[in-house]
Amino acid sequence: MAGNEPNARPRAPHLQVYKWGPAMAVSILHRASGDGLAIVGAGLFLWWLGAIAAGPEAYAAFVACIWHDPNPEISLFHQITNILGKVVLIGLTWAFFQHLFSGLRHLVLDTGAGYELKTNKLWSTVVIAAGVFATAATWLYILAGAL
Amino acid sequence: MGDGSHLGKVRGLGSSGHGSHHWLQQRLTALGNILLVGFLFVSLIRLPLGDHGAVLRWATNPMVALALILMVVSVFWHLRLGLQVLIEDYVHGPMRLLALVLLNFYAIGGAAYGIFTIARIALAPVVAGPGGM
Q: What GO molecular function annotation could you give as one example from this UniProt entry (chain A) (predicted)?
């Protein structure tokens, strides 16, 4: 990985020889969800703030782009971005809950607790399940309110 | 474990001495994020997001604006620390320095834009308009 340094320092272990487990999954999901929130989430938040500041027309254009364009002659571009926007928002909701729950797990691990194999496996599984459950509950709540 | 030799430090092989500082800041901003992003999340669920006037009334509330500014500071500080570790793990050679510089531009520039925009929304004179106040 590091390349061609002529030293004999130990290499990272080969990840693919390990049996994939919940603790490994929750670890890489913490990184993936954090990076998604940092780049896509923060970027969308700033775009939203800018649209609020720019006034009602700019805000309506923002909503028409990422959520729903009420124009009966909706452009192909907005047809695509209306779908893409919802996919991104659902993805960000999941990333938020996944990163929150596995972040809380990390704060517990920082105290030195929860490293026993069974405990670690249990809470890793709980974190992943809770992230999916909270995302589903949030969007059921949003869709129920929209009906 | 010692501190490494002087030569090792010069070669960049020793401890930088900033590890625990980075670690602690990541945890403290994480606690800030739980509170402040939690506030944003609940607000987003409850707000009629399609209604500019309603969103504007929410964002011009001084307590909301203050919470949003604190959130921007906490979030962008936290994401700078997190993405720094990502870059250090996966980007090698001269590209690493470039990636870290770009990360700092993004984190500082994004936070400045966010804080300025929140202040501008909160402090702008109220203009009457359709769907507005």
A: metal ion binding
Residue A52 at interface with chain B, using a CB cutoff of 8 Å: yes
In this prediction, residue B124 carries a pLDDT of 84
Residue A129 sits at the chain B interface (C-beta within 8 Å): no
Mark yes or no for CB contact A38/B82 under 8 Å.
Answer: yes
CA of B92 vs chain A CAs: smallest distance (Å) = 7
A68 annotated to bind ligand: no
- Residues 6 or more apart whose CB falls under 8 angstroms from that of A98 comprise A29, A30, A33, A127, A128, A131
Nearest residue, CB atoms, B117 vs list A49, A96, A107 = A49
Q: How far is CA A19 from CA A23, A30, A147, B9, B118, in A?
A: 11, 19, 45, 37, 48
Whether CATH 3.30.70.20 fits A22-146: no
Cα A66 to Cα A70: distance, rounded to the nearest angstrom = 12
Which residue in chain A is spatially nearest to B29 when comparing CA positions? A103
User: What global pTM score does this model have?
Assistant: 0.87
Instruction: Phi first, then psi: give them for residue A73, nearest 5 degrees.
Output: -100, 60
Q: Which residue of B has its CA nearest to A53?
A: B121
Interface predicted TM-score (ipTM) of this complex, two decimals: 0.87
The residues spanned by each domain of chain A are 22-146
Whether B49 has a pLDDT exceeding 50, the answer reads yes
Interchain CB distance below 8 Å, A59 and B55: yes
pLDDT averaged over consecutive 10-residue blocks of chain A (147 residues)?
A: 61 73 94 97 98 96 95 93 97 98 96 94 97 98 86
Confidence of residue B133 (pLDDT cuts 50, 70, 90): very low
